[in-house]
Amino acid sequence: MKRAFYTIDGTIIAESSGGVRTDYMHDALGSVIGAVDATGVVTNTYRWKPYGSLLSSTGPNPTPTFGWLGGLGYRASGRSHSDYYVRARHYSAVDAAWLAADPEWPAKAAYIYANDGPTSTVDPTGRGQGQDPFRQWSHDMDLAVQDLANRLIAAFTRSDRLAIRINISIRPVYGNYCGPQSGDYGWHWYDASRPWAKDAMDAACRKHDDCWEKIGCNAANQLWRIDCAACTQVLCDDLKQVDCVSDQNCNFWKPIFMDYACNYERAARLLEDLRDVLSKFPPIDPI
């Protein structure tokens, strides 16, 4: 009977036999600890000893071919004293050792499995003395976060220069509302006595300030709250529609405020990307 195996990023997650698919649940190291049928019901459970022997199981189905560290490709051979095949050589769970010398010997120990640390170390290549998946997880996390941090810094590089160019002690820098948030100096969206907007660009800035004040946005939460970013995206869109004609002051400030508003949205989206990255690296409980 033909069988098909399904993987995600190299990890075996399911198999199909006779048209029936079974999905697998894995522990932190990659061993199959449960089998799930098409209806989402857990049909089997498995517990493993540190060096690969089956400790116990429940359910009607046989132990999967890729069971102990099966997510990483450890394949049960069914042979006596050669329990698993791991790409480069065979492994014995009874002897807790490889059955052939390491291809990298003498640089690496000849027969020791996973540096004698099977509860925290794996050897999916069958070469060397294994790798710590938790350390690899941390390394991958560092790289992903650093990449997004670099992109975020790049997104704000021009806006940081903008902050230097605008002396915030001058309130406002254009019209009555383009500059520091109007609520900072006593004008609120519900205040009927506040000044009118000077022109279309000033009106766009007032609209942005009103949007922020109504939902409680400020310098501390502006990036992490998507609704704050939405207000600033509207400012970006509104500024694109402003026609300064021959007003030199308007023509000077418009691209500066657009630089802030439009890059702001980009930076907020990068932080959303960061949330997505973090969701792919859930905390791993120690074994």
Automatic annotation (TrEMBL):
GO molecular function: phospholipase A2 activity
Chain coiled-coil ranges: none
Database matches in Gene3D superfamilies: Phospholipase A2 domain (1.20.90.10), RHS repeat-associated core (2.180.10.10)
Superkingdom of the source species: Bacteria
Listed GO biological process terms: arachidonate secretion; phospholipid metabolic process
SUPFAM superfamilies assigned: Phospholipase A2, PLA2
Name used for this protein in its record: RHS repeat-associated core domain-containing protein
